[in-house]
Design brief:
- The protein has about 375 residues and is of the alpha/beta class.
- It has 3 domains: about 10-85 and about 90-120 and about 245-285, no CATH class; about 130-240, no CATH class; about 290-305 and about 315-364, no CATH class.
- Helices cover about 45% and strands about 10% of the residues.
- It contains 17 helices and 7 strands.
- Strands 3-2-1-4-5-7-6 form a 7-stranded mixed sheet.
- The longest helix is centred in the middle third of the chain and has 22 residues, at about 130-150.
- The radius of gyration is 20 Å and the shape is globular.
């Protein structure tokens, strides 16, 4: 495995799980997904699936996933928010006490304690390589765009924000930040450790990011994006932008559903893990196919097909490298979810949604 998968890559993440939450039908029989750090799957429990399998090849990511589920099951919403760092000012002693009382695997406890001690028990949501990269970029962003850049977060609604963006936002200086963010060599060095998937979109990374951020600034209220808060402040400041796991209703529904759900956290390649089942009706692949060899990525749906129930949904995300899978036996239903895709708070992703058909046929 590449170095990228040997570290804690993300603790907060770069995906708005509200998208998968909107796509997942209620009371699915078996949900399988890339664990990430747990935050991308925890909200899906609120849909009350009978079974959920969280899989990842990264031991650090799975330790964070088990930590999140332990907090969900064994504590309350306030404790979860305090421990993870969504609320500023949590005392080190409180965070230490919460971890001490959690029932987690011994190996996880040892690894987490060492990690937290090395980071002075700061907020766990900022401890991933991705979050630390965003914090470094936020410092650069502040140097370039200054107070004028951050003031866009003071806008009260989208109309005011759009007007500010077009008339007062420091666009020229912001484009310099985009030039850095869109530099594949920089991202490869800062985050991906040599595993950055090659851009295959046919346009430069800089142009991709210019489009992403133009859409964010003109179609969404920026304070509601945890990704933009991280990129401008290096931390989450406005609760309106907190990810879905922070919503009390989602948290409580997920906790209640966990009592009835058969939950498994498995260290394995998701395709190998899926091969052991025949009843999966929802698969959340994140951007894993983008990291696969070309032939493996192209065959991802066919590899999954024997494991899927009829009408099962598979959600694939892609950033700068889009996989075009063999869709025989699947229907591309992405268009049905365009409204949810447009609401996704990072807009970093090209999303594909496929439904397994009842008979083998070419995707339409």
């Amino acid at each position: 495995m590449a170095d990228y998968f040997q570290q804690l890559n993300s603790a907060l993440g770069d995906e708005d799980s509200a998208l998968e939450y909107a796509i997942l039908p209620a009371r699915a029989k078996h949900v399988m997904g890339i664990a990430g750090s747990g935050g991308r799957l925890l909200p899906l429990l609120a849909r009350s699936p009978a079974r959920m399998t969280c899989t990842d090849i990264s031991a650090p990511q799975l330790a964070y996933t088990r930590l999140r589920f332990a907090l969900l099951e064994q504590t309350d919403h306030e404790t979860f928010m305090d421990f993870m760092g969504y609320r500023a000012g949590t005392l080190v002693s409180r965070r230490q006490s919460i971890l001490q009382q959690l029932n987690v695997p011994r190996a996880d406890r040892r690894w987490l304690a060492e990690l937290f001690q090395a980071r002075q028990w700061q907020a766990p949501i900022y401890m991933g390589a991705f979050e630390q990269t965003l914090q470094r970029l936020a410092k650069i962003n502040r140097l370039f765009t200054g107070k004028a850049g951050r003031e866009i977060f003071q806008c009260r609604d989208l109309d005011e924000q759009t007007n500010y963006y077009r008339t007062r936002f420091p666009l020229k200086r912001w484009r310099a930040v985009i030039a850095l963010l869109g530099n594949a060599a920089v991202l490869n060095s800062l985050l991906y450790k040599g595993s950055f998937p090659r851009n295959n979109l046919g346009i430069s990374s800089r142009e991709v990011y210019l489009g992403i951020f133009h859409a964010l600034f003109t179609t969404q209220v920026v304070r509601e994006s945890f990704f933009l808060q991280m990129l401008f402040f290096g931390e989450l400041r406005d609760p309106q932008g907190f990810p879905l796991e922070c919503e009390p209703e989602i948290f409580h529904k997920a906790r209640e559903a966990l009592q009835q759900c058969e939950l498994r956290v498995v260290q394995a390649d998701i395709l190998d893990c899926a091969a052991n089942h025949t009843d999966i009706d929802f698969v959340s692949l994140s951007d894993v196919p983008s990291f696969m060899p070309k032939a493996t990525g192209a065959s991802v749906l066919q590899r999954l097909r024997p494991s899927l129930a009829e009408e099962a949904l598979t959600v694939i995300r892609a950033h700068l490298h889009v996989v075009r899978p063999d869709c025989a036996g699947f229907c591309d239903t992405t268009a049905e979810y365009q409204a949810a895709i447009a609401r996704e708070k990072t807009q970093l992703w090209r999303v594909q949604v496929y439904r397994r058909t009842t008979s083998l046929q070419a995707s339409r």
